[in-house]
Amino acid sequence: MNVLPSEATALLYLAVAVCFILALKGLSSPRTARRGNLIGAAGAAIAVVTVFLSARLENLPAILIAVAVGAAIAAPIARRVHMTQMPQLVALFNGVGGGAAALVAILELAAHDGAWVRAAVVFTLVVGAVSFAGSAITVAKLQELMTTRPVIFTGMRFAMTAVVVALLVAAVLVTATGNLVWASVLLLLGLAGGVLLVLPVGGADVPIVISLLNAFTGLAVAASGVVLDNVLLLVAGTLVGASGTILTRAMAAAMGRGVSGILFGAFRGGSTAGGGTVSERPVRASGPEDVAVMLGYAQRVVMVPGYGLAVSQGQHTIAELADALEARGVEVSFAIHPVAGRMPGHMNVLLAEANVPYESLREMAEVNPEFRNVDVALVVGANDVVNPAAKTSPGSPIYGMPILEVSDAGQVVFLKRSMRPGFAGIENELLYSPKTTLLFGDAKESLTRVLGAVKAL
Amino acid sequence: MDLSTLLTVVVLAVFVGFEVVSKVTSTLHTPLMSGANAIHGIILVGAILVAGQAAEPLPLGLALLAVLLATVNLVGGFVVTDRMLHMFRGRTQSGNSDPEHGA
User: Fold this and answer.
1) Which ranges does the record mark as transmembrane (chain A) (predicted)?
2) Are A345 and B47 in contact (CB < 8 Å)?
3) CA A261, CA A209: separation in Å to the nearest integer?
């Protein structure tokens, strides 16, 4: 079919690009976000219809079947995935997008003989392959199909250097000759590079890598727009590249570290290595009834949920506890650290799933000055994000990371599984403070017991 | 596309991207990531064009694989983002499920 004149195609693509911008703009508030996303989806649908009408396409039945199969695979996964598994899913979708961009690039190589376009092919190929392989490792780490610790082997630094040098040589060769064999080598080197890039990253830093790889795929798609002479791909890819870059930097700042420190930290021994020793000092442990009394007779309570809460699937229980306390006239809000959960904003999604209204979700900068007026801070399954060592001990691996200043609250209650330190492997002095009470156990079970005790007050 | 047009489009898109994304509330960073993710699934357009021109079996097979992967990216990304955003409700709405009122 070739029913659309090229001007109409160009205008429709422009409309789609505007839809994508509106989709991102809608995310400035939870109220407009869903409509924005639907506008984006409508834009994507327009784009797909447009491409079928814009050019004479062979193999139409096969293409339609591939689209149908892809949609039939993706939609059920997207509908059923647990919210705790969101980081894996985002990484997975990101990886397949990068893989698609790399394939498009290698197939287009033969059709172009200008060095300029070939350079764009090379860029798409390499970045798409890095994103595909890197995302695959990320999914494996998050799904715990492999160790979440940084993986480093002897000679890794050498292997990395060798891959980078070989990549540059192959890139120059492909740009100069357009040789398909070299392009295939380039693809394999890109895959190897992606694996080597993500292997040394520790589990706690993986979210930043997802965000970075998201930006990579965006850039690969933008470059494929140059290859295919398609403005829509160029604009959409650039938008994603820009958003991924901002988000990556914001997350790195929330962890108090540079992006390069996260990627290459394991080589220098500065990454989140885990481990650490358990101190023998006394702490004040108590039962659910005592905690219920502290919470039930407080005026203001701030809950600080961490990944331990998500692991135990306790987000519904904490929401119920908040409701029970509010029914008693206690003012309850949730303080969310930017890196709580396993990706930026993850904890907000988990709590939204448990029907916590978004007005109750408070950002770090907003809630920190208010802790001094808070009677009880209830820390559930979080550790490093409230560890004062980030402010007080310059030698600590988390030094400089912005934290939720729960130590300003009148009393602090930790629901913890054990005295084991968190991801960063550093002890939390706050646990030994006289104003701190601990309740040991699985986060969800402890919350259920506290909830029962609050209801019995 | 000549170089100057290309640069114009890219530079403007970068600025629009930075401008729009820096206004996104940190509460919605996860939907932002998955939404941006869905947007780069638009590589599907490129994959369809390439598949529509493929003549040999091997390039066609690879192009169809690209179509499949890109569709997974595009469809899955928008569906899961919608599902997440559907869960974000305001205080006045948390009791009932009518999204048209309140907020």
Assistant:
1) 6-24, 36-54, 60-78, 90-110, 116-139, 151-174, 180-199, 206-225, 231-252
2) no
3) 12
What is the C-alpha separation between A189 and A184, in angstroms, rounded?
A: 9
Q: Is residue A205 among the annotated active site residues?
A: no
* Length, in residues, of chain B: 103
Average pLDDT of chain B to the nearest whole number = 87
ipTM, two decimals: 0.89
Rounded-to-10 torsion of CA A168, A169, A171, A177 = 160
For chain A, which residues make up each domain, given as ranges? Answer: 1-80, 84-268, 288-455
What is the widest separation between alpha-carbon atoms in chain B? 59
pLDDT, tens digit, 9 for 90 and up, residues A201-224: 876 778 788 889 999 999 999 999
Angle at Cα B57 formed by Cα A136 and Cα A108, nearest 5°?
Answer: 65
The C-alpha angle A145, A150, A152, rounded to 5 degrees, equals 110
- Give A294's contacts (C-beta < 8 A, 6+ positions apart): A376, A411, A413, A437
Question: Which of chain A's residues have a Cβ under 8 Å away from the Cβ of B99?
Answer: 34
CA distance B46 to A238: 15
The per-residue pLDDT for range A8-42, each reduced to its tens digit, is: 999 999 999 999 999 999 999 999 999 999 999 99
Q: How far is B42 from chain A (nearest CA, A)?
A: 7
Place of tokens 């893989």: A99
Q: Does B7 touch chain A (CB under 8 A)?
A: no
Task: Give A241→chain B minimum CA distance, Å.
Answer: 8
Burial tier of A266 (Cβ tally within 10 Å: 0-12, 13-18, 19+): buried
Q: Which residues of B touch A326 (CB under 8 A)?
A: none
The minimum CA-CA distance between B96 and chain A, rounded to whole Å, is 11
Give residues with Cβ within 8 angstroms of B62, minimum separation 6. A103, A106, A107
Closest CA to A226 of A123, A117, A129: A117
Q: Cβ neighbours of residue A80 under 8 Å, at least 6 residues apart?
A: none
| Any A CB within 8 A of B52 CB | yes
Burial of A361 (0-12, 13-18, 19+ CB in 10 A): buried
Looking at chain A from residue 233 to 292, which residues have their Cβ under 8 Å from any Cβ of chain B?
233-244, 246-247, 250
Residue from A113, A205, A290, A384 carrying the catalytic annotation: A384
Q: Which stretches within A328-388 are classed as H helix? A: 346-353, 364-367
Q: Which of B48, B77, B86 sits opposite A63 (nearest CB)?
A: B48
**Does the domain at residues A288-455 carry the CATH identifier 3.40.50.1220?**
yes
